[in-house]
Structure to design on (481 residues):
């Protein structure tokens, strides 16, 4: 097992390698060597899809859990396996890396890879916090790297159809508002009376990386790191990024990377587990054009039912309200209706799962970042909208939901729906477990808070990095606890 001093030393060798290794610039007929970092469910899916693309070779397979790396290696016996991502990043036969680690490693691994001359495909969310996402975009620009976020629906041809439908032909008239819906059932992650011991197959030091070494109180080591702030960003930073990305793309044409303000709230209710992130969450954004509201719940619609909450016909997607009707969309499909609810048009897509890796590889070969459908700056914006919703909830005051309007027309009806939803569990938005923020104002064109509460809110824009895994160049503000 490598210690922290080893990490710092090898990081220095990566920087030296970057000075001698040019960005990949072979002809379109030459093979692109790939290294995969993170081989859980999503990482294995990416490995499968990338390995089916022409002109690529799977060279390295990496996971801090050696059992996962070994299992992937059985399917790709020609690849080398390792627990240490730096071996992949320093490998001379790797041209691009595919990162599907826990969220807290996304940006640090991406920056290290770019500094070593690699292009990067990185899973969503781009960042664990706003600061490191901003630095990752800056590094991509400084070094001229191709960096794609794993919001694969961006490569679905249906997305371009929708942009035309809303903004060119305007078949539903001017846009008025957007409601984002993430209603998907999950379960409690448990709460242990004694800390969980990581699996013996895991190099826990490398798994933690920049995250703090704190006791793990949940039942399962893998995946449920999503619901703890030290390593994850909750459901808002999980499915939320995909859905917000759709909205910024088709409704805003990527012209609104930062809203003017955000107000939000929510809490973790019912389960009494080791999770910290909200399982009921809501946020409202004001922009220069139209408002956006997000509603999220991981609870069943009602106790005993095996289905999620639903708005119109959407449980995991979004609703674009227009002057002449509305559109209900989800991954790979959608339906447009007139104001009376009459179906006008159906949309069908591919979900983009195969096109997205192909799009990234085309940009790597041509060195043209304009080809990327989910280029890092676009991915940073979608991720940051979700960070803002999380920050608003964490800035909230217990019981402040009693002042929220829950009428049918307020917050596009989202608050009323969530109020009814919670009442089925003998709760309400006014419950002490629900924390609600004031309206938080953003600096114009910047993901930075101004005005009332700005000092505290801005603390959430970064984090404290574990000794030996500090962010390159340091951080600009103190991290929130």
């Amino acid at each position: 097992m490598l210690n922290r001093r080893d990490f710092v030393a090898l990081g220095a060798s990566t920087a030296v390698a970057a000075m001698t290794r040019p960005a990949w610039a072979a002809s379109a007929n030459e093979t692109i060597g790939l290294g995969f970092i993170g081989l859980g469910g999503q990482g294995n899916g990416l490995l499968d899809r990338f390995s089916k693309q022409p002109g690529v070779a799977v060279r390295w397979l990496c996971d801090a859990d050696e059992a996962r790396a070994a299992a992937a290696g059985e399917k790709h016996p020609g690849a080398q396996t390792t627990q240490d991502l730096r071996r992949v990043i320093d490998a001379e036969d790797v041209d691009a890396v595919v990162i599907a680690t826990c969220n807290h490693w996304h940006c640090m691994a991406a920056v290290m890879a770019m500094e070593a001359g690699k292009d990067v495909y990185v899973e969503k969310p781009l960042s664990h916090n706003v600061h490191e996402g901003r630095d990752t975009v800056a590094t991509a620009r400084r070094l001229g790297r191709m960096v794609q976020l794993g919001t694969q629906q961006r490569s679905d041809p249906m997305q371009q159809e929708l942009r035309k439908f809303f903004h060119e032909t305007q078949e539903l008239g001017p846009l008025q508002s957007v409601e984002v819906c993430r209603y998907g059932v999950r379960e409690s992650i448990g709460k242990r009376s004694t800390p969980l011991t990581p699996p013996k197959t895991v190099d826990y030091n490398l798994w933690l990386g920049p995250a703090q070494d704190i006791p793990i109180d949940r039942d399962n080591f893998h995946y449920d790191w999503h619901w703890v702030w030290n390593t994850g960003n909750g459901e808002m930073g999980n499915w939320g990024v995909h859905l917000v990305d759709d909205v910024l793309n088709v409704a805003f044409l990527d012209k609104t990377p930062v809203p003017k303000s955000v107000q939000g709230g929510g809490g973790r209710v019912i389960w009494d587990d080791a999770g910290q992130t909200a399982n009921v969450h809501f946020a409202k954004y004001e922009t220069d054009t139209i408002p956006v509201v997000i509603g999220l719940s991981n609870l069943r619609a009602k106790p005993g039912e095996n289905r999620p909450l639903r708005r119109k016909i959407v449980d995991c997607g979004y609703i674009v309200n227009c002057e002449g009707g509305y559109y209900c969309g989800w991954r790979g499909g959608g339906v447009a209706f007139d104001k009376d609810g009459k179906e006008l048009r159906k949309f069908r897509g591919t979900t983009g799962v195969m096109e997205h890796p192909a799009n990234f590889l085309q940009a790597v070969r041509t060195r043209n970042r304009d080809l990327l459908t989910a280029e890092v700056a676009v991915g940073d914006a979608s991720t940051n909208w979700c960070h803002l919703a999380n920050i608003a909830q964490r800035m909230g005051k217990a019981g402040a939901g009693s002042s929220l309007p829950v009428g049918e027309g307020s917050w596009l009806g989202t608050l009323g729906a969530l109020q009814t939803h919670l009442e089925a569990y003998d709760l309400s938005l006014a419950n002490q477990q629900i924390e609600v923020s004031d309206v938080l104002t953003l600096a114009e064109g910047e993901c930075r808070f101004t005005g009332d509460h700005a000092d505290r809110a801005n603390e959430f824009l970064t984090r404290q990095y574990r000794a030996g895994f500090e962010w390159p160049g340091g951080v600009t503000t103190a991290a929130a606890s």
About this structure: Residues 156-186+235-351+376-447 form a domain with the Dihydrodipicolinate Reductase; domain 2 fold (CATH 3.30.360.10). The chain is about 30% helix and 20% strand. Residues 376-394 form the longest helix (19 residues). The chain has two domains: 4-154, 156-186+235-351+376-447.
